[in-house]
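Reopening this one. Same input as before:
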Amino acid sequence: MLTFQPGALRAVTHLIARHMGSDEIEATEVADHLLRANLAGHDSHGVGMLPAYVRLLGLGLLVPNQTAETVLDAGALLVIDAKRGYGQKMAGDAVRRAIAKAKEHGACVLAFRNSAHIGRIGTYAELAISHGCAFTSFVNVADNHPQQATFGAAEARLGTNPFTCGVPGPNGEPMVLDMATTAIAAGKARVAYNKGIPVPENALIDADGNPTTDPTGFMRDKTGALKSFGLHKGGGLAIMCEIMTTAVAGGQGLHSPSKGGTLNSMLATIIDLSKIGDPAQIEATVAASRAYIKSAKPAAGVSEVLTPGEPERRAAAHRNAHGIEVDETTWGDIKAAALSVGVTEAEFAQASGANA
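Same output, byte for byte:
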């Protein structure tokens, strides 16, 4: 494992995004987003995504500096088509527009569709929270081979289809639940494959529908599938993420022909909490609920009961202080992707050594 200061990963990501064609604003947003995912402990959605982004760029399935299409802007309803734009910038801009409309109307329903990979959805929940809003979203993954076998299925039919919900909390510590509807995210299978380690039990099936902990077939051969979490409950939520983002938000579904890219669509609700109640009282209620939940006796083998958002805050504190580990395979892939878009060896070395 290699260890990097956060500034180095930010600099490398910014350098690659610029060479991919992104302007300064977009490259900065992409770099900040991917770094925040790594800091939060979600390496599946961090800088390890860069080789995939470079591949999508080469196929014309990711468009830097894209201008999103406003399909509908009607009061508390906002419909935006990202037209395969760089996901972090497209989704960030869309959520910022939805926040502004929530401040005006009390709430906004955002139908955001057909974006290149938008990254860690919790980042957008945190963005809304920073403006005093609550955030809920359904997201799907399309234009790719299916990755999730829902309950009772022996083969994949859906993407990892994340669900996210967040609300402000006291002392700048919000409650944020951000989860794939699969037992593990696809990116975590990629990380395990690159490290040469197994995935957890009950997370993956092979090409014949049998349980396996070996991610090789899933990652290398595109066979097998990730299992839904929680039996029929996770599978049901995954299906509704697909329905809410396609039938309701108008995004592409996995039932449509694939070009081998990644498209995300999202149906999000943003609520301005100052319009629905006293923000201080809302935070106090969050604090009381958190304290009560954490007061429970831990189960055997568990040192402490945690609530949504706590693991990410602890990971960020540790990684800011001690650096971020990246396995050698992933780092080699990132370097190869950088060189393929015109980054020089010297530029890559300089960015990799950044410690700001």
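So the earlier flakiness isn't reproducible anymore. For the record, The longest strand covers residues 133-142.
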